[in-house]
Task: structure prediction
Amino acid sequence: MVNFGFNAQTTAQKQIPLKKQNLDTMTDANESYESSDEEFSETENALNTVLDTSNRSHAYGNHTQNIHESADILDRYADKINVDQYLGGSHRITRDRSERATVDQVLDPRTLRFLSKLFKNGTITKINGCISTGKEANVYHAENSTTGKQYAIKIYKTSILVFKDRERYVDGEFRFRGTKNQSNPRKMVRTWAEKEFRNLKRLHSSGIPSPEPVDLKSHVLVMEYLSEDGGGPSPRLKDYPFADIDEVAEFYQRLVVDMRLMFQKCRLVHADLSEYNTIVHDKELYIFDVSQSVEPEHPMAMDFLRMDIKNVNDFFSRVKKINVYPERLIFKFIIDPWSQMDPSGEVPKEDNKHLRKQLNEIPLKTVDDVEQNQKDEVFRSLHLVTSLRGLEERDFKRFSEGHVDTLTDLVAPDVLRTLDCTVPRDQEEAREIQDYDKNTTSSDYDSDSCDNEEKEESKIPKLKRFEDKEEKRRRKKAAKEKNRERRKTKMNKNVKKRLVKKSHRHKS
Ligand SMILES: Nc1ncnc2c1ncn2[C@@H]1O[C@H](COP(=O)(O)OP(=O)(O)OP(=O)(O)O)[C@@H](O)[C@H]1O
Ligand SMILES: [Mg+2]
Result:
């Protein structure tokens, strides 16, 4: 039996994940905002301004047609769209804050057009209010009164800047190569929503508990609503009232196993995994908010994975006070192919039961295990590379001083070395993208987007930076030779200039 017993821990400062830091900054800013009656009516006025059709032509200048269309949509659906706080259960957001965010950042005329598509295609019949106003999106509760189904609608904010620093998640993934839309926030959020939709699909089809993705219209994503009683949303892991320490340990193990399944079966690293992005629903641990998740080929995937492991370990050890597995051993557990894990050579099933057995072999560490903690600290600071050639001097020094077990600890494992990032490895994924593009009508995108341009760009391979050094040298040499050959038959610049001038003279 694994000992997940209590530890006499000091209440050390919790390490805040990257994304959460931003979120917390925002929450602090919001919390310092005192909502007076005066300000509330200001918000209400703002809402009325958006809903008032007579003002729309001022606000949106030349897009009169779109505005009239939006006015129609509002006339048709105003009674079906409630932007108040969702009153189905307990919520953390004040009415004032959610309305303000809604009016300012989410329900613009364009978004209303996409919502109207969801009403028209019969996915939903009503939007009942706002569940959450997050940093990058607002989540609304919706329902279909015919089927009785409930949905969560995540609407990405198009007018915020947080997406600017998201470039690093999208950049470096073959699925999104060529989508050079970082400078256009509207296209960026669309890519973002699409990424979340696809990632949710992968999770769901691999049997990892996650909300089922239902529909996607540009930056508006519809998914299954996770709720215990049809009221408020099921609690996030952070707020879940654990029955006892055994239940805490159970959820910890499940989450570690899910991280492996996500990596091995879905080929995804969550990249923002924490107690905030996991929901306990029907006694299962659901993973969501996967818009920033990346594939293992992504140049920062291993760094994101290390961060996820740390976040998960921090929550369970510091907040829930159980013994956890050493971070570097979890890392290995997640990325090692089965053949390496099982000396018998037999390839066991990638399922919960087998993985739990495997996990139980890993020794737990106590919070004051100096040696293990030191090793984890070194592991966190290592510059992981895919081959010994990329090894940094500083890390090699650590190895020489005995701070690293083996040299291979510094080198990301075989699974990474064998990845060929210059071509889509996952043919199924490539097909999925083609299908998606085929099935997505241009009206599902921005009406004013340069999609053709984007599609053209997406054909151009852009992943040269992942090339092996040797390969890069060969490519450069070949390019040089090609240019040399071209120069042999190339017309001299001055001759060309003279000819062009001549032909101009003839024309005139
Ligand atoms: N499918 C769902 N069912 C029930 N509740 C959900 C669902 N999806 C999201 N939520 C609720 O909405 C909140 C925000 O969702 P999500 O994390 O996806 O958005 P976000 O913009 O990333 O927010 P944050 O910045 O707070 O992380 C969640 O914490 C959860 O409470
Ligand atoms: Mg979130």
Notes: Confidence is low (pLDDT under 50) at residues 6-63, 89-104, 414-430, 440-466. The longest strand covers residues 126-133.
